[in-house]
Amino acid sequence: MMRxxxxxxxxxxxxxxxDEIEADYRRWxxxxxxxxxxxxxxxxxxxxxxxxxxxxxxxxxxNGHPSNTAKGFxxxxxxxLLARVDTGYxxxxxxxxxxxxxxxxxxxxxxxxxxxxxxxxxxxxxxxxAQAEFQALAMKAVIGVREVRLYDIxxxxxxxxxxxxxxxxxxxxxxxxxxxxxxxxxxxxxxTADKAYATILTDNMVGAGIHxxxxxxxxxxxxxxxxxxxxxxATFVEFEPQTRIEGEIQQMPADYPVTEFWRVLRGEAPGRxxxxxITLFDSVGFAIEDFSALRYIHGKLHGSDFFHQLDMxxxxxxxxxxxxxxxxxx
Amino acid sequence: MMRxxxxxxxxxxxxxxxDEIEADYRRWxxxxxxxxxxxxxxxxxxxxxxxxxxxxxxxxxxNGHPSNTAKGFxxxxxxxLLARVDTGYxxxxxxxxxxxxxxxxxxxxxxxxxxxxxxxxxxxxxxxxAQAEFQALAMKAVIGVREVRLYDIxxxxxxxxxxxxxxxxxxxxxxxxxxxxxxxxxxxxxxTADKAYATILTDNMVGAGIHxxxxxxxxxxxxxxxxxxxxxxATFVEFEPQTRIEGEIQQMPADYPVTEFWRVLRGEAPGRxxxxxITLFDSVGFAIEDFSALRYIHGKLHGSDFFHQLDMxxxxxxxxxxxxxxxxxx
Lengths: 330, 330
Fold this sequence. Notes:
The structure is a homodimer.
Chain A: H1 2-8, H2 10-26, E1 37-40, E2 45-52, E3 56-64, H3 68-71, E4 78-84, E5 90-95, H4 97-115, E6 122-126, H5 132-143, E7 147-151, H6 155-165, E8 171-174, H7 178-181, E9 187-190, E10 197-201, E11 211-214, E12 223-225, H8 227-232, E13 234-237, H9 240-246, E14 259-260, H10 261-265, E15 279-282, H11 287-299, H12 322-328
Parallel strand pairs in A: 6-7, 6-9, 7-8, 9-11, 10-12, 11-15, 13-14, 13-15
Antiparallel strand pairs in A: 1-2, 2-3, 3-4, 4-5
């Protein structure tokens, strides 16, 4: 995956992924959609996220373990699969730790391209963990953000993100508070990892016309925004039944109004209607984004050496003779 | 997988798997249980079957495509994963086409060990596809079946199964009708692949005291038994919510009585109560059986050369520095 990304260039990959995801969102009704299947434990969650467009099936296996960082593991590690619907046979198994970071950033950029103020050139990035640089580069590559203002409760995370973003054509400002980070920003991205009802943004911090890209509140009991912000914002979601369970809106009554973003793309619902409006993308990550990303990667493999063959499927001469295959291997 | 099975011996593996599955069924309440997640299409179904005992998480990816045989593919192909619940990190990815055949046979044998007539020595095997030989050997290895009577609508399938079972200490009788096959059998196993409401057994074919091991009716719209048989039988299932959707009992009203088999093992419900009773195991396959099988295989890997390492997980020096890892790989 790393070699493939460098071969094509990370900003090009982020632009391509944004377009792939948008193309799949525009044919939303063709996809089989279900809330992800989550297995919760005290330490975190393991999720399976399947979808299908009737021709290709995909799923992602992904964990979310905030305590992993202290153990030297990723908070989020993932892999995914593409399969043919007509035979049920797998096409590709892929790492998705890196690919999830890329597709999450591309999804944020896709939504910001349609909902953020047109002149948005400055983004505040609150939470400077593993996702931060991908978010910054996607916003640069897709909508032309020029300045990123970093803040994290851990200054080491901010130093890491600032160092990684050096020399990439962005003005990077490291800030000592969330309040400072949001100064002059038209986009506020929140991407923190704590599995708790946290308040990364309070109501008085969010001015008119802002687009909030809320990434970190993505499972039950894990939110980042004060509910008063939700009360003022026009809220856009990926797939409402899943976001009601996992998103910022889990804090709100079941009838709190939201718009599924694909409807904006298809012209079936308004996006931003007013320059002073606060738009909120309550992002939790949806299976179609993984589908788009896996299919994009699969399309880049032909003729490359970015993959190798896995011998994972029994292949008897006669499909009904599984036992004979085993017997002859003795 | 094939080398591992031969190393330990197939009948020993089937006995071990039967015991492993039974041990996990006895701690049924510890497991997270959900009906499998199924993606249906005109050609077949792709399913994800997850479970967890709080320490280990497993899932299986499995397809069911009856039309695959004509294309030279397996009707059922599968792979599975074990992961640690505390970190969410994968432990093992394994083929499960062969392993599913083994665990399905072991599950049938586990149930027959408790529900079939004690003197059961003869089994009718209706449907002689990929599962048939595994079922026959598991019943031999676990409960001492000595004669297997084969029938399939396709005589070539029967010839294949008979040839494969030669020299394994079983009397194998090839029959020209289901009626002939069930003569003298105390156990009737039905294992056919058609995705349809089929009638492999009619009511008048099933006498008193028989144990029916119904394997093939395992998804919506796919059954094998006439409903009048269900009316006369004491029916045992794996996980009732799943079997109501997928099993033979989908033909019956929602209040048709069934017993989850783990309750018999735990002494919480009666098994066979009468020598003349018809017992029916309405088997659809459940995630705990895959969990047991994967854990058994994982336990056999240490010190062996039956596996190789997969480089599937991003492993940055600092877990939050995913981008730095990517950058340094350039």
